[in-house]
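Appendix C reproduces, verbatim, an entry submitted by the partner laboratory led by Prof. M.T., so that reviewers can inspect both the input and the predicted structure.
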Amino acid sequence: MRVAIVGAGIDGLSTAWSLTKLGHDVTLIEQGPIPHALTASADRHRMIHRAYGDADGYAQAIDEAFDSWDMLWDDLGVSHYANCGVLGISQFAGDGAEQFRMGLDRLGIDYERLDSREAARRYPFLDASTFRYAYLDHEGGALFSQRIAHDLKAWLRMRGVDIRMHTKAVAIDPHAASVHIADGSMVRADRFVVTAGAGTPQLFPELAGNFAIYRNAVAYLAPPEDLESAWSKAPAIVDIGGSSNGYVLPPIDGIGLKFGAGTLKRAVPDAQTDRHVMPGEGERLRQLFAPPLSRIDEYIVSEVTTCVSTFTADQRIFSKRIGKTLVVSACSGHGYKFGAAVGQRVAHALESGDDTALKLWLRAETV
């Protein structure tokens, strides 16, 4: 079967990987380079964890996500995952970090609970007086997204996948399985998969009401010199507690200390809007991390990058079959960690014509 995939973020790359392994003839179309600066794959690393509060579907899918990544590492011949562990920090009752912990309890997921003094002894960058307790899940950590995209691209090329970078799709006929390219050419296939992320509403305006696009920023920081060693051995932090939805990826394998916060995201009409970094944006982000971090003013902002995420109303991964085309989109900023698993499920659904596998944890509709 000839399959064309529009969009080479992690879902598109993983779908191409899965379809190629199943023996199909794949064309991968991407409007920019791979990885593209406007996709999640362009970030240096992303977090994978089991803590999801009341979103049990996500938490229960993590085993499949880990298994799928392991299959990918086997094919690539290298693992782009660092199992540094994942820490949650609760500042007050009912905050996001505590809700994440309660989800772990409900699903029977083991973790190590630390009182504030023990947590600060183990992780000296924490101020014990500013939080109630912490908890450490020893499984989870960082996925190196840029490296994954680079090596997947190379793996696909070696297996004959037709990769067309800097090729912008401007219109898709989902029933004819054809796409018009900006240069006037056309690509036809037996089946189409669209994994265009925030670009999906432009290709399918009738689906625009299903998505909200949010712009956010992450900052890379240099910690005080005497805390560098502590940070180098630190776990990822899924939530710093309080109300900021702040998270941290530690400096690991040559990539710097990264801060991000969900409360700073704001709606934008498309992936290109406000992608510039605003003056002082990194410093404002940094200040959200005290508490629970001590000496926050001593951290130097070295780089700020912007990013976009596609959200759905129910925060479930979106899929919709239209004629010979399957449209798939991430849903909440959490989609990267499920990328390899999504690619496998989409490939099998496309091959079989049966969306049952998608319906287990992806929303699936057929028209």
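Residues 56-76 form the longest helix (21 residues). Additional entries are available on request from the coordinating office.
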